[in-house]
Specification:
Number of helices: 10
Order of helices and strands: HHHHHHHHHH
Strand content: under 5%
Radius of gyration: 18 Å
Mean pLDDT: 86
Largest sheet: none
Oligomer: single chain
Shape: globular
Structural class: mainly alpha
Low-confidence stretches: 1-7, 189-203
Number of strands: 0
């Protein structure tokens, strides 16, 4: 077994999520983090004072996608609607990342609970699977807001890991999202493909 980033999600991702939740207890700090929604790091000047010290102590952010992921997820957490801010995140740090719910899982749950229509959720996943990291970051604010307002939990640490490696691991990540979407959106896991048309040998 290797220690590659694909093999396990480092605990630092969960530590960062806890750090951002603590920052968001202050209204002014939360507002400044929220200003980075969907923006590249170069336009997130109000976030540097909060994130740069933590990142340089806990992670190597020389890879652009990695730093963008940290900034993007921090802003998404800061932008949570009030109803979502009132819920304390569950501690899942001892669970391997591939056993934790990813964005596909959240969208599947949203469909099952009638928070989103199946066509909308599936189209969003297929679209993101073809897009660049920058385009995915721009799409996430509206998508996660809809999930959170519907009472759907987002595992921010897993999303952070997935976004950090999007450019290098996009196809594998998109496959995991789609796999978990279909597992969670359909109670039986098997779509109903029956029709009223007669079988070919009955014609």
């Amino acid at each position: 077994m290797t220690n590659s980033p694909v093999a396990a999600a480092p605990p630092k991702h969960d530590r960062f999520i806890s750090y951002v939740h603590d920052l968001c207890q202050d209204n002014r700090t939360r507002a400044e983090l929220r200003r980075g929604l969907g923006l590249p790091v170069e336009r997130c000047n109000y976030m540097h004072r909060y994130l740069v010290p933590w990142l340089h102590q806990h992670d190597d952010v020389s890879y652009p996608d990695t730093r963008r992921a940290y900034y993007g997820v921090a802003s998404l957490i800061a932008a949570r609607p009030r109803v979502a801010r009132q819920t304390e995140p569950a501690d899942a740090s001892t669970t391997a990342w591939y056993l934790r719910p990813n964005l596909g899982s959240a969208l599947g749950e949203a469909v099952r609970k009638d928070v989103m229509k199946p066509g909308t959720a599936e189209s969003a996943l297929h679209l993101m699977s073809r897009q660049s990291s920058d385009a995915v970051h721009r799409a996430l604010p509206a998508l996660t807001r809809q999930l959170l307002r519907g009472g759907i939990t987002v595992d921010w640490a897993v999303l952070l890991r997935d976004l950090s490696w999007w450019t290098q691991d996009r196809d594998a990540t998109a496959t995991r999202w789609l796999d978990q979407y279909f597992r969670h959106s359909m109670p039986t896991g098997i779509p109903d493909t029956t029709t009223d048309l007669p079988e070919e040998n009955e014609r």
